[in-house]
Amino acid sequence: MPEQAKKPIKITETVLRDAHQSLIATRMPTELMLPIIDKMDKVGYHSVECWGGATFDASLRFLKEDPWDRLRKLRDGFKKTKLQMLFRGQNILGYRPYADDVVDYFVQKSISNGIDIIRIFDCLNDLRNLQEAVNATNRFKQKEGRGHAQVALSYTLGDAYTLEYWTGMAKKIEEMGADSICIKDMAGLLVPYKATELITAMKSATKLPIQLHTHYTSGVAGMTYLKAVEAGVDVIDTAMSPFAMGTSQPATEVMVETFKGTPYDTGFDQNLLAEIADYFRPYRDECLKNGLLNPRVMGVDIKTLLYQVPGGMLSNMVSQLKEQNAEDKYYDVLKEIPRVRKDLGEPPLVTPSSQIVGTQAVFNVLMGERYKVATKETKGMLRGEYGQTVKPMSQEVIDKVIPGEERITCRYADTLENELDKLEGEMKEWKQQDEDVLSYALFPQVATDFFKYRQAQQEKVDMSQADVKNGAYPV
């Protein structure tokens, strides 16, 4: 056999975003990241994922940090490595669809503050909800020469999700003007030999680079990466070992070692990686000690493959049942989830569709009658506010939950008026930088609380003594 041409596998490091989002609820503070940047910058990563996803909300809400400030500090530190973020299409990083002017402005500010690659996804894989973010990235790129739009497909299983479906999507993504494609397997459902089929088929359908993102939840992720790389995938997402495995990604060092001496050899220095791992290990120990890292999320949960339910959705469901003293209904709800998912057009289970399906399944079981009570979000889904599902939704359920209501068939954002000026007007007393209006747009209450905290810090006010109700802040 002729010797295989070299094709080093590229690696996106997730320790500064998805790894700690998956394991410790996105609580790693910026101060902890900064001292190790210099070493991480020397590794030779394809990119470092460090922003977006839940980092924005968690920074403002729990860490009392400005997420834009974090991004600028990371950009200052990483001289050579591309920075990457996760972006929920028309929902940006919030939980509702925003008008196009907000999406445009957010993309513009993300890139000008230091992001190179924007990974854009939609919970229904409705490409109409991704187009504006892709266009905004491309406009910035034409003007400034920076910015890369990567469209992520939420990977899921079901009758509708055939190889033809995935290859058809790949072609459409290329036509949309995206720079690359990511297969985003949030629940660890992609098994090794299926990865071979999927990557082979997608590679034959598109010239765009293909990146694979998965989670170790079901225990197969490392083997899935091995088969995907052999099938020609271009980039894989991994996490430094102290924050790898469990509900996070496969370990960076393990994947580097796996491909050593093969045509896919990364060429990374294991000694340098070991120094980076040594840096994060004490923090991991501290998180185990203070309970931020629950050993439960470190293991393998094969139920993920049986019920196709991502880990976060499972824990959410357990706590909902606990509150209602109905933990004995656990298996009934697990059986109800696929039925609700089918009623709602078989969407992939990822934020926010996973929460919508899970919560509705809990209600259906607890009420003893399906859809006797429907959540506001379920109604929105049935109306078409979240977009078009791959399969039609159940007419019977539509008639029961939103009888006679008009359904939306266009792109929902087309029904929204521009809203930047209005948002700017609402928060102008707190504005200290252009980006503040975006923080407010995404999380009005949380951002306002943060702005008050920031002002108090600047004026050296003791918040613990403050009479918040009457707005009296003793110095």
Tell me the layout of helices and strands.
Layout: E1 10-13, H1 18-24, H2 30-33, H3 37-41, E2 47-52, H4 55-63, H5 67-77, E3 83-87, H6 100-112, E4 117-121, H7 128-144, E5 148-154, H8 163-176, E6 180-185, H9 192-205, E7 210-214, H10 221-230, E8 235-238, H11 252-258, H12 270-289, H13 303-307, H14 311-323, H15 330-343, H16 353-367, H17 376-383, H18 395-401, H19 420-427, H20 436-442, H21 444-458
Parallel strand pairs: 1-2, 1-8, 2-3, 3-4, 4-5, 5-6, 6-7, 7-8
Helix pairs in contact: 6-7, 8-9, 9-10, 14-16, 15-16, 20-21
Describe the structure.
This protein has helices at residues 18-24, 30-33, 37-41, 55-63, 67-77, 100-112, 128-144, 163-176, 192-205, 221-230, 252-258, 270-289, 303-307, 311-323, 330-343, 353-367, 376-383, 395-401, 420-427, 436-442, 444-458, and strands at residues 10-13, 47-52, 83-87, 117-121, 148-154, 180-185, 210-214, 235-238. The protein is globular and about 65 Å long. The relative contact order is 0.12. By secondary structure, it is an alpha/beta fold. The chain contains 21 helices and eight strands. The N and C termini lie far apart (77 Å).
